[in-house]
Design goal:
2 domains; about 0% strand
Length: about 180
């Protein structure tokens, strides 16, 4: 069972007006949160909720079941919201552990981890170089699947670098500092 299959199923469901199921199943922990898959499977009449490809195929072969899925999502919205919250917490814990690792490395060695910065700058520069090349190369670039995969990977990496260095934790620090300044007055 591949995470790409869960993402396809999540996108399909979200596109059909099922935002909670789509977010849960299409998110990074879609396969781990089998409750939502079991809910979809029960509506679609499938035996297993752990096979996203089978669920997607059943959904495509019987599109009229979208209405039943909407009813199921509505009647189970509280449980699905808890799953979505759990998924968001898992993501935030992952980001937080990466930042804690950097702090621990700095405390242990007395220096920042230069590998992290070299990798980040490589991804950022690679992204902009590939955008420039793509701008001037035209259709020849688009016809090469390997280069398109590279720009996709660099785009995802660029987003990850921005989220790591300027993401919600950075905003949280600024917000906390502003609140402390207000309390001090």
């Amino acid at each position: 069972m591949k995470s790409e299959d869960w993402k396809k199923l999540g996108k399909k469901l979200a596109g059909k007006g099922l935002p909670l199921l789509g977010k849960i199943l299409g998110g990074p922990a879609g396969a781990a949160l089998g409750t939502a898959g079991a809910l979809v499977a029960s509506v679609l009449g499938e035996d297993k909720g752990d096979d996203p490809a089978a669920l997607l195929q059943a959904l495509e072969s019987r599109p009229e079941l979208i209405i039943e899925l909407k009813k199921a999502e509505f009647s189970n919205s509280e449980a699905l919201r808890r799953l979505a919250l759990q998924q968001e917490q898992m993501y935030l814990e992952d980001v937080q552990s990466a930042r804690k690792r950097e702090v621990a490395m700095a405390e242990a060695t007395g220096e920042k981890d230069s590998n992290l910065y070299v990798l980040a700058w490589t991804v950022v520069m690679g992204f902009f170089v590939m955008i420039a090349v793509m701008s001037f190369a035209g259709d020849a670039f688009k016809e090469n699947p390997a280069l398109m995969m590279l720009i996709g990977a660099l785009s995802a990496g660029f987003g990850s670098v921005l989220n790591y260095f300027f993401g919600s934790s950075s905003g949280s620090k600024a917000k906390t500092a502003a609140m402390q300044n207000m309390q001090a007055r």
